[in-house]
Design goal:
heterodimer
Chain lengths: 294, 331
């Protein structure tokens, strides 16, 4: 952002003479945030996978304990450690999120490209499909899909995967259309380059970053919708480690004052979603030329 | 103007037809056997062949999909949505009975989130970069990452269990004759669900309004007003507010889809007897007719919101009448 020079002009002049060593640039800091967030998510997924078998272990001598040093998130009415259950649940969420968001992003890429490159009819058809998908509330659509193909891991993953593409498809369509009308693409065509070469050499480098950012920013939506669907009873089965299951089970114990059953797993879910959000916006700041210098 | 309205009505019928086909096909794909679902496992096993065949005929088993759709769509035009399996009543009655409480919940949440989000967005935009801005922005980003149902659970724990200020769920007191339920009772049961649901929409509208407020404050007309001696806030209130209110209202109208989706979750948490809860019961209980009915109602509401936004823009901005106005921004 261009700031008026008069604002603290003396300080600027002074700092020009100061050695710049030791100052970390914004770009480096954004990159660091991205790496830390990605690493934390990876660690969560791995830890959660290892925690899964232990998370299912019941110990009726230690049931319904509040949070303490041995069980930081407390235990449930079957003596299962809530911390381990939460970890395993987050790993499930991340896994479903990655599969579903990846599939959704591919659908968005294909449909967005078809709309932008396939002529007027294809464009109308895809736009119509986007309107149709957005015409129903997301949760209702997910319930209908779960009704159609059944519950369970694949039911919820497919449901989340086939409903999250419209917004990204619109972005990709707009991006390709803008790119096609740009001078450098027209110039390349005049110079006699083939359509395939233009697509790979000139358009892909513009569209791919947007696609990547869109993909990462789909994760939070996918994870929250998986949790919501599971919470309602349409998603993962009750024996699966999932945050939605933990939270819907905790409903029966709220009036008994077992607040830790709902509070910590939910907070952990929010933190995970924020991590994905953070990674996505850092990536965008790094890739997008308009903010790359900030 | 008339043509603009007519085109929207045509678009509505077209979209509703497409939605109804989509919904009907999805529901028909279901692996649930309608005969078994309607009578239950035990009764199905004890049932004679003839009775089973009769039920299969009643549920149109074996009829091709398009024929079933044609029958259903024909009945729909006569106002017949079929019978609800779980509530044992016509779908239209079930929906009518529940729509009122759902609409009250959604409307109050919609209004609260709109007003609060708008005010927060303006405050954040006016104090850009300062503590208030960072606080509001941080809260909004955190709220956008928070699932509505978890927030509902936390509200229940804090306000209903711990503090005891509000009742623990439902829309009316338990054990009281319907005629004796006062408006105050209903309001007390509405507060927590409505607040939880309104939080879902605040983040979006606040962040959007913040960006707009920053733009408006950098605009020439606001600068001119300030040169004439108006304060920042005065300039905003007199000249900027109109330019902020319309996009915000449009965005809020387009967010009806999210509010409806959120209401499904919130009603489930608070055992609030509305459309969302009925949708969950229908989905889990194999009640295809009710599920289809609720899906159509939700699609009509969403489209109504988008069309209202379009009409609003068309009224205010003549350029929009020519172009294809699209109210729904992407999520």
């Amino acid at each position: 952002m261009a700031r008026p020079m008069s604002e603290g002009g003396g300080a600027v002049a002074f700092s020009l003479h100061r050695p710049q060593r030791g100052r970390v640039g914004n770009r480096v800091r954004t990159l660091a945030v991205l790496v830390v967030a990605a690493f934390a998510l990876g660690a969560l997924a791995v830890l959660g996978l290892f925690a899964e078998s232990q998370a299912m272990q019941t110990d009726f001598l230690q049931k319904s304990l509040g949070p303490d040093a041995a069980h930081p998130f407390g235990t449930d009415w079957m003596g299962r450690d809530m911390f381990l259950r939460t970890l395993a649940g987050l790993a499930t969420s991340i896994f479903v999120g990655v599969v579903a968001a990846g599939a959704s992003a591919v659908i968005a890429l294909v449909l967005g490209s078809i709309a932008a490159l396939g002529g007027r009819r294809a464009d109308t058809a895809v736009t119509w499909l986007v309107d149709l998908m957005m015409g129903l509330p997301h949760i209702i659509l997910l319930i209908l899909i779960s009704f159609a193909i059944g519950k369970g891991f694949w039911g919820v993953t497919i449901g989340v995967a086939v409903t999250h593409w419209p917004s990204l498809a619109r972005v990709i369509r707009a991006e390709i259309l803008q790119c096609r009308q740009s001078d450098f693409v027209a110039l390349a065509a005049r110079l006699g380059q083939s359509r395939a070469r233009i697509a790979v050499k000139h358009m892909l480098p513009h569209v791919f970053p947007q696609f990547l950012v869109g993909l990462v920013l789909l994760f939070p939506h996918a994870i929250l919708h998986e949790a919501a669907l599971t919470f309602l009873g349409f998603g993962l089965p009750p024996e699966a480690p999932a945050i939605g299951i933990i939270l819907s089970e905790s409903m029966g114990y709220l009036s008994a004052g077992m607040w830790w059953l709902a509070l910590f797993p939910g907070l952990a879910l929010v933190a995970t979603v924020l991590l994905f959000d953070c990674a996505g916006s850092s990536l965008r700041r790094l890739i997008d030329p308009f903010t790359a210098q900030e | 103007m008339l043509r603009f309205a007519l085109r929207n009505i045509a678009k509505f019928s077209c979209l509703m037809a497409a939605v109804s086909v989509l919904v009907f096909v999805l529901v028909s794909l279901s692996p649930i056997d309608p005969v078994q679902a309607s009578v239950g496992q035990a009764a199905y096993l004890n049932m004679g062949e003839a009775k089973r065949a009769e039920l299969a005929r009643y549920w149109d088993v074996g009829t091709p999909l398009w024929e079933r759709y044609a029958n259903w769509a024909g009945a729909l035009f006569r106002g017949d949505l079929g019978m609800s399996l779980r509530y044992n009543a016509p779908v239209s009655e079930v929906i009518a009975a529940r729509a009122a409480s759902s609409l009250v919940l959604m409307a109050s949440a919609w209004a609260i989130s709109g007003v609060v989000g708008f005010v927060l967005g303006i405050v954040a935009g006016m104090y850009r970069g300062r503590a208030a801005d960072r606080l509001i922005k941080g809260c909004c980003i955190a709220l956008a990452a928070t699932p509505a149902f978890w927030l509902g659970l936390v509200c229940l724990m804090v306000f209903a269990v711990w503090l005891g200020w509000f009742p623990f769920g439902f829309s009316v007191p338990v054990g009281v004759v319907a005629a004796e339920v006062t408006v105050l009772d209903a309001l007390r049961h509405l507060v927590l669900p409505a607040l939880t649901l309104s939080v879902v929409g605040i983040a979006h509208i606040a962040l959007h309004t913040r960006e707009k407020a920053i733009d408006v404050m950098e605009g020439d007309y606001v600068r001119f007003a300030q040169m004439r001696g108006l304060g920042r806030w005065q300039a905003l209130l007199r000249h900027g507010l109109r330019n902020l209110a319309l996009p915000a209202l449009t965005l809020q109208l387009a967010s009806i889809s999210e509010i409806f989706g959120g209401s499904v979750l919130v009603e489930q948490v608070f055992s609030y007897p509305g459309l969302g809860q009925a949708a969950v019961v229908a989905g889990l209980g194999g009640d295809a007719a009710l599920l289809v009915g609720i899906a159509l109602v939700s699609a009509a509401l969403v489209f109504g919101g988008n069309m209202a936004a379009n009409l609003l823009y068309g009224l205010v901005d003549p350029r929009m009448r020519k172009e294809e106005a699209r109210g729904s921004a992407y999520e």
